């Protein structure tokens, strides 16, 4: 009977013996401004552009993220994506998340054609100062649950109060968690198949020896 994956198995995903990150367990590369600039769109918003802001982990960048960013971009002309730091993501997702480190996630998001700018290590709570500094006109979030900040407050309280908060249904329910579970499930199936194959080979070898 095939074993079922459990939460402890998540700790093995993304692990590496020479890893450096206490959150991802994976080996990190050294980021440079030149490397990041190569992925960036590289232009400032125009005076009359409507600026949209979204934030998240964007771990294991996938088609669900793509669909969400496309829908978010329709709320304005210039899309800014805030990417949470490794410690922040680990706090609200737990286990061994994020799988990808911060700079890997930044470069993944910058490759998306709908993204105009990225805030590296964005704060979890969207403050009024942040809204004013970036001249944000709309703040969007997907249909996934919004977890409170460390003090128990709603991270989107201010955007909601001033009427610029929007929930987006991208019609795509794929999540990073689902991808990780799929990897773990396939890993178990692979291991079970190899165990059966090995047992069969041992049986045949023992039968030959008895002849």
TrEMBL record:
<comment type="pathway">
    <text>Lipid metabolism.</text>
</comment>
<keyword id="KW-0443">Lipid metabolism</keyword>
<comment type="pathway">
    <text>Phospholipid metabolism; phosphatidylethanolamine biosynthesis; phosphatidylethanolamine from ethanolamine: step 2/3.</text>
</comment>
<feature type="compositionally biased region" description="Basic and acidic residues">
    <location>
        <begin position="1"/>
        <end position="12"/>
    </location>
</feature>
<dbReference type="GO" id="GO:0005737">
    <property type="term" value="C:cytoplasm"/>
</dbReference>
<dbReference type="Pfam" id="PF01467">
    <property type="entry name" value="CTP_transf_like"/>
</dbReference>
<dbReference type="GO" id="GO:0006646">
    <property type="term" value="P:phosphatidylethanolamine biosynthetic process"/>
</dbReference>
<comment type="similarity">
    <text>Belongs to the cytidylyltransferase family.</text>
</comment>
<dbReference type="InterPro" id="IPR004821">
    <property type="entry name" value="Cyt_trans-like"/>
</dbReference>
<protein>
    <recommendedName>
        <fullName>ethanolamine-phosphate cytidylyltransferase</fullName>
        <ecNumber>2.7.7.14</ecNumber>
    </recommendedName>
</protein>
<feature type="domain" description="Cytidyltransferase-like">
    <location>
        <begin position="54"/>
        <end position="147"/>
    </location>
</feature>
<dbReference type="InterPro" id="IPR014729">
    <property type="entry name" value="Rossmann-like_a/b/a_fold"/>
</dbReference>
<keyword id="KW-1208">Phospholipid metabolism</keyword>
<keyword id="KW-0548">Nucleotidyltransferase</keyword>
<dbReference type="InterPro" id="IPR044608">
    <property type="entry name" value="Ect1/PCYT2"/>
</dbReference>
<feature type="region of interest" description="Disordered">
    <location>
        <begin position="1"/>
        <end position="27"/>
    </location>
</feature>
<keyword id="KW-0444">Lipid biosynthesis</keyword>
<keyword id="KW-0594">Phospholipid biosynthesis</keyword>
<dbReference type="GO" id="GO:0004306">
    <property type="term" value="F:ethanolamine-phosphate cytidylyltransferase activity"/>
</dbReference>
<keyword id="KW-0808">Transferase</keyword>
């Amino acid at each position: 009977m095939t074993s079922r994956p459990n939460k402890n198995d998540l700790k093995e995903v993304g692990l590496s013996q020479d890893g450096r990150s206490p959150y991802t367990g994976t080996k990190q590369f050294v980021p440079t401004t030149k490397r990041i600039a190569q992925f960036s769109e590289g232009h400032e918003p125009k005076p009359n552009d409507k600026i949209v802001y979204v934030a998240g982990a964007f771990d294991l960048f996938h088609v669900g993220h793509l669909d969400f960013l496309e829908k978010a971009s329709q709320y304005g002309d210039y899309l800014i994506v805030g990417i949470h730091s490794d410690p922040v993501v680990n706090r609200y997702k737990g286990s061994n998340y994020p799988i990808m480190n911060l700079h890997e996630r930044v470069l993944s998001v910058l490759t998306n054609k709908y993204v105009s700018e990225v805030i590296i290590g964005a704060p979890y709570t969207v403050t009024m100062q942040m809204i004013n500094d970036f001249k944000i006109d709309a703040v969007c979030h997907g249909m996934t649950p919004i977890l409170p900040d460390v003090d128990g407050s709603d991270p989107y309280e201010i955007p909601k109060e001033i009427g610029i908060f929007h929930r987006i249904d991208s019609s795509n329910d794929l999540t990073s968690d689902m991808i990780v579970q799929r990897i773990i499930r396939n890993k178990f199936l692979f291991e079970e198949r190899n165990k059966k194959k090995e047992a069969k080979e041992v049986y045949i070898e023992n039968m030959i020896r008895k002849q």
